[in-house]
Amino acid sequence: MICALTGGSWCEIYPRQPYPMAFPELLDQVRREVQTGYHPRLLPGASSPKPYAVVFVGSPNWCGTIAPPLASWLAKNDLSGKIILPFYSHCGGVPCDFSRDVARLCPKAEIREALGVVEDDGADLPGILRDWLDKNSLRPLPAVYAGESIQSTVTKEQDYAYQR
């Protein structure tokens, strides 16, 4: 939905070693990785953030912080001078400070306030995203959510298409 609102590109990252499918084993592994600051190796293929001025980064809230694969990607890429808008999903578990955690990995980037979204039916998500973009001085593209096309790119600060 962020891509639809901004006209941005989508990139997914994956760890080389998949996480366990069974929740108890997954939770044990994630806790170990978070406690030790482990950054897993990633599969190749993730896009470079170099051509973008604004980068949205998101993951689930894993034990009160960003997922280790996202931490790996952030640590691997130079995001100096970029605006980073972190977002995360959660089920009401351990509270987190995503902006602080991203800032630790990207000290030379401008980290904006993170958006935390509780997992529900998503009916309010378009409005929540539009408010978050506006709060961060970024205007969403004009769009209607009944499948109508996006018409143009608009910004308050800079080229919202993210290309320098």
Describe the structure.
With 164 residues, the chain is of the alpha/beta class. Helix content is 29%, strand content 13%. The protein is built from five helices and four strands, in the order H-H-E-H-E-H-E-E-H. Strands 1, 2, 3 and 4 form a four-stranded parallel beta sheet that branches. The radius of gyration is 16 Å and the shape is globular. The protein starts with a helix and ends in a 29-residue tail after the last helix.
Question: Can you summarize this structure?
Answer:
By secondary structure, the chain is an alpha/beta fold.
Largest sheet report: 4 strands, parallel
Radius of gyration: 16 Å
Shape: globular
Determine the structural class based on helices, strands and strand pairing. Answer: alpha/beta
What attributes does this structure have?
164 residues; alpha/beta; 29% helix; globular; disordered C terminus
Topology at a glance:
Blueprint: H1 2-6, H2 23-36, E1 54-60, H3 68-76, E2 83-90, H4 98-105, E3 110-111, E4 115-118, H5 125-135
Parallel strand pairs: 1-2, 2-3, 2-4
